[in-house]
Amino acid sequence: MRIKYSDWNDALEKKLREFSGLRQLFHHLLIQLNGDVDLALNALRRLQKLGYLDNDLDIDDFEKKLLEQAVIEINPSGKKKLTRKGERDLRRNALERIFGALKRSGRGDHTVPQEGGSSEEPLPERRPFKFGDNPQLIDFTSSLFNSVRRTGNLNLALSEDDLEVCETEKTTSCATALLLDISHSMILYGEDRITPAKQVAMAISELITTKYPRDFLTIILFGDSAREVKIKDLPYCGVGPYHTNTKAGLQMARRILLSKKHVNKQIIMITDGKPSMIMRENGQIYRNPIGLDPIIVNRTLDEAVICRKKKISITTFMVTDDPYLQGFVERLTELNRGKAYYSSVDNLGEFVIRDFLTQRRKRK
Length: 364
Fold this sequence. Notes:
Layout: H1 10-32, H2 37-49, H3 59-68, E1 72-74, E2 80-82, H4 84-105, E3 118-128, H5 140-151, E4 164-172, E5 174-181, H6 194-211, E6 216-222, E7 226-229, H7 246-258, E8 264-271, E9 277-279, E10 285-287, H8 294-309, E11 312-318, H9 323-336, E12 339-342, H10 348-360, E13 361-362
Parallel strand pairs: 5-6, 5-8, 8-11, 11-12
Antiparallel strand pairs: 1-2, 3-4, 4-13, 6-7, 9-10
């Protein structure tokens, strides 16, 4: 291979770094602004006008490059929008940012809940055959070469000592329901909790679809009610003037997961508030935004018990440090025999990804 060297171009290197930095900020703004490209670009220009961004940065040129690279496009009405490529870039960026924090931290370890429903994936490494090995894993090419090397002829007189098998990696198959709280409290008190929560959802979806294609993932938003959304719609989801119907979210997740054949089933719930609403069996709505209403709490805890009986674990990530609300989560976790984390907004993504990875993978 011929390598061609040229003079180092400081201006080009600076421009590339500036573009990369702008793109990171642009991605964050897109998630925060529910995927509105025009608002995100205008926010960049306003940040520059306010002095938060260097005046030398060319936002117009940045926008032009996004169009050239088919990250964004202009629809017939003249409004800019993300392309499918742009949506994938957003998910990949979320995954890279969260995994960067994960690699730097290196804390935490959890066991696989069940070994059933796993698959064996061949690795490049080979080892001698042992009694009890899966015959389908025999590498006949290597085994035949061993026979020729041993006998010195092409009679193909295989013996057990000639056989080699592929090393394997046991990967558990898992069905995951990711629940996102979109109640109004996720943006109250001057703290934006929904943006990192959405970033986590995009990172997990990208992880599963690219690295674990046998797995199943559903994303459920819960506020006054619960609804399922597609992965591609994640950037455009936002908080509404909703109460917190945790029971509805858990109930929908349970029903979807029970329809799947995966042995391992789990719910990952990201929330910052107490349950404040339920739907009674007769269809009547019952709300109480003040305190922990025992009627609402008990019906929600009932759902946690049902999930435990159906072997569906619940991992809750509580993005608040209110001891009053943590008591509810601790009780839910105790009844479900699941896990609970009380994390800040800054390390939320790191904890979610670590728990998901370490529960679904083992080396054989």
